[in-house]
Amino acid sequence: MAWAHQDKTAIVGVGATDYYVRGKSWPRTINDMAGEAIMNACADAGISVKDIDGFAYYSTAGAGYVDKFDTALLMETLGMPHVSFSATLTSGGGGSVGAIGLATAGLMNEDCKYAVTVMSLQQLPQHRLGKVFGAAAPNPENSFLQPSGLVGPGHLMAILARRHMHLYGTTQDAFGEIVMATRANTHNRPKAVRKAPLSKEEYEASVMLADPLRRLDFCLETDGAVAVITTTMDRAKDCRHKPAVVHACAHGGQREWGRAFGWMGMPDPYFASAGHKFVADRVWAQSGLKAKDMDVALLYDHFSPMVLMQLEEYGFCEKGEGNDYVLAGKVRYDAATRGGVNGGTPVNTHGGNLNEAYIIGMTHVVEAVEQVRGTAINQVADCEFALASGGPAALPTSSLILRSA
Amino acid sequence: MSSKTAYGPARVLPGEQIRISTNPDTEPYWDAAKEHRLTACQCADCGRFRMPPSAYCPECSSKAKNWPTLPGTGTVFSYVVCNKNPANGEDYIYVPAVIDLDGAPGARVNANITGCDAEDVHIGMKVTVEWTPIQDGWVLPNFRKA
Ligand SMILES: [Zn+2]
Known about the structure:
Chain A has about 400 residues and is α+β, with helices and mostly antiparallel strands.
C-alpha cells in the first residue's frame, strides 16, 4: 500500500561547508560549521534562517557525532524565534536518510513548517571516529567485543565481509572495483577530498588494515557540516529550486540484525549483509517501485563491501551475486551517456564517503537532491527517482527515495 | 587477487591491557570464566541460548537463567586478521574471531585465535578455549586451533 505521506513533502534546500581532512577544521567549531551549513541550505531554499521551526536529526540526542550540539544552542544563536519540532532518530549514521522521514512526520503533524536536518562533524585527536569503539570505556555490553581487539568499525565490517566471501565466493576485486568506480566520479568535483584516478595497481598496493579490507576500502575521515531543509509540498512550490519530492522513506530493522556488529549474533543470511533488507522492503512497499526503477543509487559507503551487500538487499542483483554484478561494471557512471554501464544503475555519482567526504551519510542526501533537480555535477539523464541509504550500523538503518517534481 | 599474506603466528592480545566491566546479568558468565569454566546464558524456561547475557529471553520473556558448563569447544564463524596492537599501535598479529559455541546453539563469543599462523585461520575451523588473565583478576576466554 502506498505511503500516506508519499509526495507530501520535499527537500528544498541543501547546504554544506568545505570538507576538511580529519582534524583540519580547527579553529572552527562544530557549531560554527553547523551554522554555515544551515544558512547555506536556507539560502539555497530561498528562505530565512529564522523561518526554520523544526529540527530532525539522527545519531541520538545531539546532532554532532562525537562533539555534541543541540537545538537549544543552535536556535538561540542563529536567531530562530521559536521551535515547534525537535526530534532525533536513535543510534548512529544508519539513521541519516531516515531523518528526512522524521522531518516529514513533524511537517505532516503540522508541528513545524520548515525542518532542518544537519550533521556537523569534527574529529579532533581525542574524538576520532575510527577509534570510537576501542576508545570507549569498558561497559558490560562492549566487554563482549572490545577485549578481542575489535577496536574500529573497519575491524567489525571486515568480519562481515569475510563471511560474505565465504558464503558466496565474493572477492576483494569487487571491493576494489567499488572504490575505483566511485573514485572515477570525483575528478570534476572541486570539494572532493580524493580526486586522483585510482588504478587497480594502486588499490592493490593499499595497505591491508583489517584483512580482507585495505585502507582504501575504508571511507575518508572528514570534518565539515551538511544541512538540508524539508518542507511541505505547498511551501516547496515557492522555494528557489525544483522540489526534491519525498516519495518514500523508512528507518528500522529486524531483530536478526539488532545491535549488528556490536553484537555479532546475527544468523545467516543477515550476518553477511548490510542490515538493509527490512528498510528496502519497506520503501519498495511504500512506493510500488523496485531497484530497476531507480535512476541513481546513493548507497552509504563507509566500507566498500557494504555497498555490494546493499546492492543485493535492495534487489539490484540477487543475494550472493553482488560480486559478479559489481565486476560487470554495473555500479559505474558513464559520463558520455550520462547513464549506467552494462545495464547497471550508477552508484555514488558524487564519489561517496569513500572519495568525496564522510559527513555520516549527509552527502548522499545532497547528491540525491541534486540528481532529481537535474543539477548534479555527474548528472544522470532524465533522473526521476534517486535512492539514498543510511547505514549499516546497529539499527536503525534507513532508506529514502526522492522523486523529481 | 588473494589475501594469502604470510602473517605468521596469530597471537592473543596481552591480558594486562584488557579491562572489562560487568552487571548483574553478565557477571555469572565472568565468574565462571574465573574458574576456567566456559558457559553461556541459557533461558531456564525455554532453553534458548543468548549472548551477551541480557535481562530477558527474547523468545519467551523469562528472566530465569541457567549457566551450563559447555564443552569449551567451538567453530570459527568469521574472523579478521589484524596487524597492530590497538593499545599502542605496534606491529602485532592477532585474529579476532566470532566463535559458534558447541553445546549452546545460537550463542557466540568474540575472541582471539591462536595456535596457528594467522593466514591459516578459516571459517569452519574447530577451536578449544584457552584462558587469558586480564586486569582486575578477571579471566578472558580465547581460543586455540583444535
Ligand atoms: Zn525463554
